[in-house]
Amino acid sequence: MDSAAVSVNGDRLRSRLEALARIGADPRGGVSRFSFTPAHTEAVRLVGGWMREAGLTPTIDGAGNLIGRGVPASSNGAYPAIAAGSHLDSVPMGGMFDGALGVLAAVECAQAMRDAGASWTRPFVSIAFADEEGNQFGVGCLTSRFFVGDLSDEHMKTIKDAEGRALRDRVAAWESVWPREQAPPLAAYFELHVEQGPKLEAEGLDGAVATAIAGMSRATITYRGHANHAGTTPMTLRKDALWGASAFVLAMRRLALYTGGDAVATVGKLDVEPGATNVVPGLARLRIELRSGREELLEQLRGAAEIQARGIGMEYELHVEVSEWTHSPVVPIDVSMQSMALAHAARRGARVVRMPSWAGHDAKIFAPRMPTALLFVPSKGGISHHPHEWTDWKHVTQGAQWLLDMVTALARNLSDG
Fold first, then answer.
1. I need a labelling partner for 297 at 20 to 30 A (CA). Which of 12, 171, 233, 363 fits?
2. CA angle 193-194-195, nearest 5°?
3. Nearest CA among 55, 174, 53, 64 for reference residue 120
């Protein structure tokens, strides 16, 4: 059967997204569904049931990822699988689409094929990753890292949450409910996600395919001056550490603007000591984050940020310390998968573009290892990680159909090797 003849059920997908959003609903607004909490456990039970309805067999792996396995008669499980998915955990007071859309769109793909009486050429796997946001254990994309083999089962015993409970122990508590199996070998991975930014809506587009997942560099900048009485110390004699930090924050804004949209810079954390209204700040410590889809630009920005930090220190007569940078490199997305995504969208009359992903996703863990596609649908107002996160249901259905068209086509076209 031609994949174009198989259609997703938008009403069913909407109903399931709304039902999932009620699990972990925060009375302050949005969804607070953290990994391995009772809300997450309930979500796994619900999504696992929908996987069964779609003809998939739900299991969990050693990190608590929910895996819906389907083996079509045409392959008998002889080939590596095509996978699609995302994550079930959320940030505090997050939106109903972040992660959930990718999980339930993958389940909907399997159910649409089953409803149409069609079968996959290769096995299809739907994945609901347990911990992508990093709220519980402080590691982003934690359980997809385990899925691909970056983290061992022994390592999982050493990763603990704020209460000292090991990840491995959290997973063990589920094993009486779900059978545990090793992750299956994969031939390709797909992830459908809301954009979490304003570009698609602002330009009237239906979607985008990621060209790369932006690299990220972070460092701590510390300015040391001299704490003194706020009333008796003349302005001309002050060595105010916060003056230096404030100047640096504004300098980073200008630096990012000069890139013409190719980079962003954020200072999201600033600590001031001694922290009293009537004391001139003697120390200011901030955390700078740079992101770009161009590796060479990130390198240039790191150098420019250090020059700015030290120049500002000299201007305000402050001692400056710049920590070592932590760096996550840019992750390119397979060009052939990008072209395939654009072609399938064009066949449906959808207006889509190529663009980098400015946020991290589980797809970045898979992209260096196998053909990977990261697909975006518009976010209303560019709002995400917030109770007001919203994507029109038209785009939800359109995105799920785009995903279905791609995974079925790739299942036919991949070589058997």
1. 363
2. 110
3. 55
Give, as one character, the DSSP assignment of residue 236. G
Furthest CA-CA distance within the chain: 84
The conformation of residue 185, written as its DSSP 8-state character, comes to P
- Of 165, 10, 20, 8, which is closest to residue 88 (Cα–Cα)? 20
Per-residue pLDDT of 18-39, as tens digits, reads 999 999 999 999 999 999 999 9
CA 413 to each of CA 82, 84, 122, 407: distance values in angstroms, whole numbers, following the listed order: 11, 17, 10, 10
C-alpha distances (whole Å) from 233 to each of 223, 279, 325 are: 19, 9, 36
The dihedral built from the CA positions of residue 306, 310, 311 and 313, taken in this order, carries a sign that is: positive
Question: CA 360, CA 353: separation in Å to the nearest integer?
Answer: 19
Residue type (1 letter), 234: P
- All domains of the chain, ordered by start, with CATH? 3-213+330-413 (3.40.630.10), 215-328 (3.30.70.360)
Strands (E), 163-206: 186-194
* DSSP β-ladder status, 331-332 and 207-213: antiparallel
Residue 329 has pLDDT above 70, yes or no: yes
Cβ within 8 Å of residue 125, ≥6 positions away: 67, 68, 69, 70, 81, 82, 83, 84, 85, 184, 186
pLDDT band at 417 (very low <50, low <70, confident <90, very high): very low
Retrieve residue 348's tokens: 């449906």
What mean pLDDT do residues 198-214 have? 96
